[in-house]
Design a protein that fits this description.
Blueprint: E1 9-10, H1 16-41, H2 46-74, E2 86-87, H3 95-98, H4 103-126, H5 131-158, H6 161-193, H7 195-205, H8 208-233, H9 244-261, H10 271-296, H11 301-324
Parallel strand pairs: 1-2
Helix pairs in contact: 1-2, 1-4, 2-5, 4-5, 6-8, 6-9, 6-10, 6-11, 7-8, 7-11, 8-9, 10-11
Length: 325
């Protein structure tokens, strides 16, 4: 906090010096964020990284102009005031929160950053009486509004249609390798491998609560096993499959979900009602797996359906026969 402050300040209570100081720190933060985006994207998306490098350079130019104005009006010492010190001031999402959401989400976030900055400079200009300060803040408001145009110019310079298509393909491939592939493997394992123990228990005991407990144990156990196996199988450095932790979570969670789907109906006390609902859930799960394979893994739909549905049906039949015997 600023010395003497016991709570967040209201924007309308800031002095002109504090407004300039807030603008300087905000430009520093935005330039740092853009450079973080650039470094994060440089390996897989070099053309978009060049765009963010250019945007960071523009923010540096704004900061220098603001510092020069502060020096001429108030001297060398700039008050320590940042976004979090001002009530209601726009905040920036942490880079680590955005980086997992894909390249299009990062581009959208950058566009929102420019809109927020432009709105701030307009309000700041209205709060100042010094002509030079008002002019600079108005110029920066126009510059931030024009950043969308400048971003378009940078995109045209660094990101032609071929480069954009290439980056989009890379982003899709990364999403598939990091999330879809391990998640699909987990969903298949959880849906299919738990069929036999769940339905064998169901038909052997005809006790819905016991069947649910067996299904819960099988699902959670399989999820933990699949998660650790996926995370330990490949660190992603050479294969390009991404973070082992992300893949482990995707595989483990989807394995558990796949098993729980047909275990949860056995919370219903009536055995045949629970079993019929569980059978319907299994049918939906297997066709959903076939659809995901077709959409993301480009497996012909009928081949995927034949493999998954036939395999699931055989495991289901084995469980029923073993339980009935």
């Amino acid at each position: 906090m600023i010395p003497g402050m016991t709570s967040r300040r209201r924007f309308r209570d800031l002095s002109e010096q504090e407004i300039l100081a807030l603008a300087i720190s905000s430009e520093e933060d935005d330039a740092r964020i853009y450079r973080s985006y650039a470094e994060m994207l440089r390996t897989d998306f070099p053309d978009t990284a060049a765009i963010f490098d250019g945007m960071a350079t523009e923010e540096d130019g704004h900061r220098k102009r603001l510092i020069e104005l502060h020096r001429s009006r108030f001297g060398e010492v700039i008050p320590l005031i940042r976004r979090e010190h001002v009530a209601g001031f726009y905040a920036r999402r942490p880079v680590w929160l955005i980086e997992n959401l894909g390249i299009e989400r990062i581009r959208d976030e950058a566009e929102a950053m420019e809109r927020d900055a432009g709105a701030f400079y307009l309000k700041a200009a209205q709060r100042t009486t010094d002509a030079a300060t008002r002019k600079l803040l108005g110029d920066l408001a126009a510059a931030e509004a024009g950043h969308q145009t400048r971003a378009g110019e940078l995109e045209a310079e660094h990101l032609d249609s071929d480069a954009r298509d290439s980056e989009d393909r890379t982003a899709k491939r990364q999403f598939v390798l990091t999330w879809v592939q391990p998640g699909l493997a987990g969903l298949m394992d959880g849906s299919v491998s738990t069929l036999a123990p769940i339905f064998a228990t169901a038909f052997a005991t005809q006790d819905t609560w016991t069947t649910f407990l067996v299904g819960l144990a099988a699902s959670v156990g399989a999820g933990i096993s699949m998660g650790f196996t996926e995370a330990a199988s490949d660190d992603g450095e050479l294969s390009g499959r991404g973070s082992p932790m992300k893949r482990g979570f995707a595989s483990g969670i989807m394995t558990t979900v796949g098993g729980l789907g047909h275990a949860l109906p056995y919370l219903i006390p009536d055995f045949w009602t629970a079993t019929i609902i569980a059978f319907v859930v299994v049918f939906i799960e297997l066709w959903a797996i076939a659809w995901i394979q077709n959409k993301y893994m480009e497996t012909p739909f009928f081949r995927a359906a034949f493999q998954v549905v036939l395999g699931g049906a055989l495991v289901f039949a084995a469980g029923v026969l073993i339980g009935s015997g």
